[in-house]
TrEMBL record:
Belongs to the SAPS family. The keyword Cell cycle applies. Coiled coil: none annotated. It comes from the Eukaryota. It holds the Pfam family SAPS. Residues 636-646 have a biased composition (Basic and acidic residues). This is Serine/threonine-protein phosphatase 6 regulatory subunit 3-like isoform X1. It comes from Priapulus caudatus. Residues 606-619 have a biased composition (Acidic residues). InterPro entries: ARM-type_fold, SAPS. The keyword DNA repair does not apply. Residues 598-799 are annotated as: Disordered. Residues 765-799 have a biased composition (Low complexity). Keywords: Cell cycle.
Amino acid sequence: MFWKCNMVATSNVDTLLDDEDVTLHKLMEEEDLLQECKGLNNKLIVFLVQPEVLHELVDLIITEPPEGEVETMRYKYANLACELLTCDVSKMNEVLSSSIDVLDKLCTFIRQQSPLNPLLASFFSKTLGILVLRKSETMLKYISGRENMIDEVLQHLDKSANMDLVLRFATCAEPHNIRCLYKEWLNEQKLVPKLVSLIEPKSSEQMQCYASQAVCDMVISLRDQKTHSDKDSTDTFPLLSVLESESTASQLLDQMFSGSITELTLVHGISVFLAIFDTSKPNSADVEQEAALQEKFESTVADITGAVEALIPRLHNLHNVLEEPPALMPMITTIGTLDPPFGSARLQVAKLVSAIIEINEPRIDAELARLGTLDVLLDLFFKYEWNNFLHTHVEHSIRSVFAAPPLEGDTVLGHPLIQHLFSGCRLKQRILESFEKCDSGCRRPGYMGHVIKIANDIASFLEAESSEELVKSFETGTLADSVQKWQEFVAGPLTDINKKQAPDIITGPMLHTSLDGDFSNADFPHETAFQQAFERHRLQQMTDNFLARFAFRNENLSIPDEAMSAPLDGRLNKIKLVRSDAVDMQGDAALFEKISSQKSRSFGDGSDDDDDDDDDDDGWEFKDGSGNVFLSAAAETERSVDKLPLEQEPEGSGSSSEEEENSGPRKIVSASPVAKGDLIGPAATNDQGWANFDLAPASSFGTVSDDPNLWDTAQNPAPDVFTSDAWDIDSEPAPWKFEAGDEDSTEGWADFSGFSSTIPCANLTSTETTSDETSASSTTDAAPAAVVDSSSSSENSAG
């Protein structure tokens, strides 16, 4: 393994630390310094917690680096110093939080005049924040003992890093009791009023943005902590109470609408109210969860009563913003020029109106109805036909009006905004006009999807008989004439649209995929060409046509052409054998018994352990009553390939390239007719009489004639029949040897032009030559072999 080879690279940090003159800058040049620190290298940590080293690290993160250096390397040491101080090593946190002089030097950074370097501000905030998180109690004692600590941080709130630090003070201290102490200290420092005071037109854009973001995040985080606290807990949330108080809301509204009204102040001020009024009404299918959410909703509504009280007198200011927004430059868009554009201020007002309607406060609803705020929003809805954000908030406001639950001592029909929508806003007439405009051939406006939803909300509301009667009482004069049109619209176009937009509900038995079951018995159409071809493929027989299509081609086979040209009778398993005239078949019963015993001997022991021994058995060899030896086709091929050592190996035998280079046509000569045991010597047979070629001497197998002219048909005409006399090794001594340079000579090579391809079969003939894929392959791979005369040898080999 890697670690066993001792290949782990050793760090140079330990080597540098052994030097007494080592400096912080020398260590910072090492690339693995930070990894060693996080890996709790004790020697390194002891060096870093030294007072002079801590002072040097703090200096690096609060001091502006010189400008002469390359910009990419300018903050290298400052960034590395910050990472070392905030790598969350327990010993370093403990020493740093207890070193008052080091903390004093760190806090001098926020005493500088604005603007601060944003990167150095992030180093400062990160270092102080990790100490507040890990050493909360120690740091509380330090920061609470410093005068104007909060004022110094808020002075530079135009940097997002300082906003993160304020949120850490308010929400991230641990444990719970220490976090409560932080909240009490921050409340004593009047953090909330100081943050709200920054959201005013005189503050910079970044200051207002980060102050608003800090207040919103504090509301969300503190409200979440209150929700998850125990009911029996005595914990107080002073910061949250101040944020939701009437005084805070009044202060913010005064800063928004006193003096000159700017869009920036309106946007960030309304963002704070949206966070306060975010009640998140329950909408859950779980009864228990819905009950819990309803309880949370009611508790939140009760807590924001003060903010609601402060907002009601200022609703007219919000209404005026919708009618007379802050001046904006014309905006060129792909659909034309917007002059004036809708603007962020009016969008925030529309969002706030939607939020306060959801609270279902009667005084707010009555004031909005008196002012006609929804009527103005509907005018803007149809004017800015491509402002999808505006359309969403207006639709949500109307749905909240229809879905408002009845209050105590009142009914839903007494909702003040109901009459305002149907009489003052002419809501039904506006919807009918918008559909008529689409039917006239004009381009479909972008608000039509929201109009369809509003129409469905109205139709659902009017399904109740009491609601319909109430609406009829509102609609007098010209409005009464549209009642019939509305009913026709709901029964006609609106119903058709709902049918088109309704999702298809799949009914009936469950559909299955192809993986769910077996479709082998499925009734596929048989008239298709593919199905007919498949049926023909299934029913085809092993016929001549099959062999011609799928077997080897004749030219690729090394057997005589006559063998392949013999016709088949339609079945490969119909093979008729006739006995040779030269064979005396007397004693058929005895011959059958001998054949059966030989086959039983070959297949009787089929265990895997005897595979090596079985390779030498001739289970397909048998004799007749006269002593003639017979071999099956498989045995003939096996003998010709495996048991004649001088024969050329068949193709695909896996011979090496060197053997292939030295291989070539050679004349195979037979040994003298000897018995089976004499061929390989008595010592090369086992106790059962079977051959063991591993023990046979090389001289027992004869030799190969090396005469280069031996294959020349002019000097040595090919015999008509292979006989032992024609190929007797004793009558033809080896006449040649290879000399240098003979490899490239083209003389003396074999000429097969006069070679006869007729090889008579011995003792066994067939009236029909048959073959399947296996026998064809075996015949192809077999090479010509010598034939030993049965009268002089007990073992035959056939090619």
